[in-house]
Amino acid sequence: MKANITTIPGDGIGVEVTAEAVRVLQTIARRHRYEFSFDEQLMGGCSIDKHGVALTDEALAACKASDAVLLGAVGGPKWDDPTAKVRPEQGILALRKGLGVFANLRPVKTHPALMDASPVKADRLKGVDVLVIRELTGGLYFGKKTRETIDGHVRVTDALEYFDYEVRRVIELAFRLAKGRRQKVSSVDKANILDTSRLWRQTAMEIGKANPEVTLEHVLVDTASMKLITAPASFDVIVTENMFGDILTDEASVLAGSMGMLPSASLGDVGPGLYEPIHGSAPDIAGKGIANPTGAILSAALLLRHSLHLDGEAAFIERAADSAITDGCCTADLGGKLSTTQMADEIIRRL
Asked: What CATH topology corresponds to 1-109+262-351?
């Protein structure tokens, strides 16, 4: 097995956690005699500082030519000017669009040893195993934007736009994945208000009729946000549009005890997948060596599973992380004392 993996450490703690995820992948390669090569590229604030843009054409080309892309996090106070024409987040949007990764998979599973780390009561967390699938390349974030001055007042618009095929492909993926789980899909929309959501619901109903073995429920986004806290174990696969998914997955992270725990995979029909922990660059702890690398390491496991088709090796990493946490190995975000590197060491030792 040979693979070329592009790494984009990005900004803040992205640099720290990506380095540990690469160490885990190198361990897997060494143990199984694989050849993994790593090509590092800039994106986000660091790219703005060096190149004046959040993602260069050359960096995007390198990502497209690779077998998979491992991303840390981007952004920080240095570049957080709402009037700036160039922002770190533009790199993420350009990378997702450039790679054609239209579905973001975020698994959320509670660990028995971390029940007390979540602000949600332990009795609500039992049996939580949710896969949130977020549409990633359409909707409000990519719609037409306008800014104009009318009678001395500034008027701005962000258009929420979807083609029917964009909706269909992500919902079909949700049904395919649900068949390997508990065979339930919760389609989240705002169909009582938004035309785009009515298209979403109509499409989900059509796909649901073609897959009668999978239970389909429609949940308004405000109700879904409530149920994620009051009855999270009632969900199996959640599928929703871009902005709703962005918000709901961050909310769901509290179920696991910390945003530092959760991985994600962004996939398209062809080409390399994009893998990253769901957390941000956390500038308040950057450089202190205390960030939780687990989300990045589990993202590396998803990379092995979805892009390199190494299911067994991915499971090795997931079991090693589970074992470390069961044995009480935790970073500061979970009430522990291990450094970023020490936490990765514990996971690697269990490989």
From this structure: Isopropylmalate Dehydrogenase (3.40.718)
Q: What is the homologous superfamily of the domain 119-256 according to CATH?
A: Isopropylmalate Dehydrogenase (3.40.718.10)
The C-alpha atoms of residue 133 and residue 84 are separated, in whole angstroms, by 31
pLDDT tens digits, 224-274: 999 999 999 999 999 999 999 999 998 998 999 888 999 999 999 999 999
Q: Decide if 151 is catalytic.
A: no
pLDDT in tens, 152-211: 999 999 999 999 999 999 999 999 999 999 999 999 999 999 999 999 999 999 999 999
Q: Against a cut of 0.85, is the pTM above it?
A: yes
The active-site residue, picked from 222, 284, 311, 327, is 222
User: CA 308, 104, 76 angle in degrees (round to 5)?
Assistant: 105
d(CA 194, CA 6): 39
Q: Can you tell me the distance from the alpha carbon of 309 to that of 284, in angstroms, rounded to the nearest whole number? A: 36
* Catalytic (active site) residue 190: yes
Q: Annotated catalytic residue: which of 190, 236, 275, 333?
A: 190
